[in-house]
Amino acid sequence: MSPNNGKNDHQPENRAAPARRRGQVELRGEQAKTVQSDQYLLDSMEETPFTKTDPWRVLRIQSEFVEGFGTLSELGPAISVFGSARTPRDSPYYAMGEEVGRLLVEAGYAVITGGGPGAMEAANKGACQAGGVSVGLGIELPFEQGMNEWVDLGINFRYFFARKTMFVKYAQGFIVLPGGFGTLDELFEAMTLVQTQKVTSFPIVLIGSEFWGPLWHWVRETLLANGMISEKDLSLVHLVDEPSDAVRAVLADTAGHTGP
């Protein structure tokens, strides 16, 4: 037997490098540095091969909607839970996420998150440990960390807009933990959809008045004060401090409602 006891001397040096997903494809090493699908779609103006042209992308986009609709069509009542991927496991917000996931399952709901780490992992963990359905909707990102281990049903998307449609279409409401730009994006899009009556009977609940309070103060004192929104628009969102109050608000607003 050779001195290496049969082990391969030619193992790639960077196999520990983080993986990035592109739809159903997992990329590592140099392959993970390729341009994202969304970036090709929104940013590229140069000539590209046919498989990267807009007509071809239409088929790929269509396939993502078909995959999402087919996978989630029989999910049943669900709530989408958002929050920062950077929330550490020893954070009080992480503990809140776990409790939210658990309470939603106990109330008869599946839990949908972005499938990543942090607050998303916490909600998936709470749902999974409570014996419920734990869903993750992942997205191709340059710093992708993969689907968290508590996701039972996961779908990876190339395109943000296809993924965001699934968050709304298959949920009866949103619970939003503290988060960054991605969380704010989902929050304000949901508020706009409710304000414009694209979805109805769709509760949006923010957890953490200390975190969200300054933002909501700005909404009231700047947007409302300048006539950019109406007084009734302020009622689109519930602001609470406890996971139990968040779930209670969702249950109150979704009573008798089967979907947006």
UniProtKB/TrEMBL annotation:
Cellular component, GO annotation: cytosol
Chain positions covered by the region annotation Disordered: 1-39
InterPro entries reported in the protein's UniProt record: LOG (IPR005269), LOG_fam (IPR031100), LOG_family_nucleotidases (IPR052341)
Protein name listed in UniProt: Cytokinin riboside 5'-monophosphate phosphoribohydrolase
The organism of origin for this protein: Arthrobacter subterraneus
Record-listed E.C. numbers: 3.2.2.n1
Keywords: Cytokinin biosynthesis, Hydrolase
A GO MF label: cytokinin riboside 5'-monophosphate phosphoribohydrolase activity
Keyword S-adenosyl-L-methionine: no
Upper classification of the organism: Bacteria, Bacillati, Actinomycetota, Actinomycetes, Micrococcales
Chain segments annotated as coiled-coil in the UniProt record: none
Keyword Protein transport: no
GO biological process: cytokinin biosynthetic process
Protein origin, superkingdom: Bacteria
Catalytic activity entry: N(6)-(dimethylallyl)adenosine 5'-phosphate + H2O = N(6)-dimethylallyladenine + D-ribose 5-phosphate; 9-ribosyl-trans-zeatin 5'-phosphate + H2O = trans-zeatin + D-ribose 5-phosphate
Family, as annotated: Belongs to the LOG family.
